[in-house]
Task: inverse folding
């Protein structure tokens, strides 16, 4: 079967094909947010989705490398050779799309545990992980901020995962990691500033700001580890994030 032109249809096809081979693949990134958040189509938040991003459990990369070419994808052989234990890249040359697969972990500006709860959703990683993979970006661009706004308009913070951000899970990730706490806090501020300068409906802006305040209070009042407190004394005098490797598209 040829690669489907619609990115979301193609994402479903890849997840289904993986399941046929007893592999768990789950979508993340902008397209996963579009799937969960109707507000992503709002005129102020809409954007294109040129790539597909997936999460894969640890030690399954070799099996994905075997079956994606069967679906019509071209591997980045040199990148996959050196990084295949944690990340794989493939290309759809017909539709000019890149497939990015995170193997066992998500390591960009910060490390986010995105493969531990893959069974909670049939197609995407859970909402809490989706939010964190965006908020861990130290240099948010406009598409990242739009994605965060769409998520926050459509989903509250709460105690579980049923169409809400699992707040205890998010807080747990920052209680021992000052760097992640810092970047998430900075990202929240950038989203607030975006709401002040863009043409969002007043009720949408208010919803976003209220939900960010819920997040701020939870992060700030949660108990912190000795490791967190020690790193807090150093503050911004030392880098607290990594800059991920830029891979040339295609």
Result:
């Amino acid at each position: 079967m040829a690669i489907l032109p619609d990115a979301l249809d193609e994402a479903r096809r890849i997840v289904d094909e993986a399941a046929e081979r007893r592999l768990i693949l789950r979508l993340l990134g902008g397209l996963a947010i579009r799937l969960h958040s109707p507000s992503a189509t709002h005129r102020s938040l809409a954007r294109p989705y040129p790539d597909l991003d997936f999460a894969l459990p640890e030690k399954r990369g070799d099996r994905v490398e075997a079956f994606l070419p069967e679906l019509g994808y071209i591997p980045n052989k040199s990148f996959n050779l050196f990084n295949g234990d944690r990340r794989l890249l493939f290309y759809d040359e017909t539709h000019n799309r890149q497939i990015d697969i995170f193997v066992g972990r998500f390591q960009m500006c910060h490390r986010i545990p995105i493969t531990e709860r893959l069974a909670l959703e049939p197609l995407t990683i859970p909402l809490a992980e989706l939010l964190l993979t965006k908020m861990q970006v130290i240099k948010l661009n406009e598409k990242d901020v739009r994605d965060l706004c769409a998520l926050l308009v459509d989903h509250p913070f709460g105690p579980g995962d049923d169409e809400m951000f699992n707040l205890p899970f998010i807080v747990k990730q920052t209680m021992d990691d000052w760097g992640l706490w810092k970047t998430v806090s900075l990202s929240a501020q950038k989203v607030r500033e975006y709401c002040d300068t863009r043409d969002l409906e007043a009720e949408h802006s208010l919803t976003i700001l209220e939900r960010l305040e819920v997040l701020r209070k939870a992060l700030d009042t949660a108990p912190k580890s000795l490791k967190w407190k020690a790193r807090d004394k150093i503050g911004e005098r030392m880098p607290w994030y990594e800059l991920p490797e830029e891979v040339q598209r295609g």
The first helix runs from residue 7 to 20. Residues 7-237 form one domain.
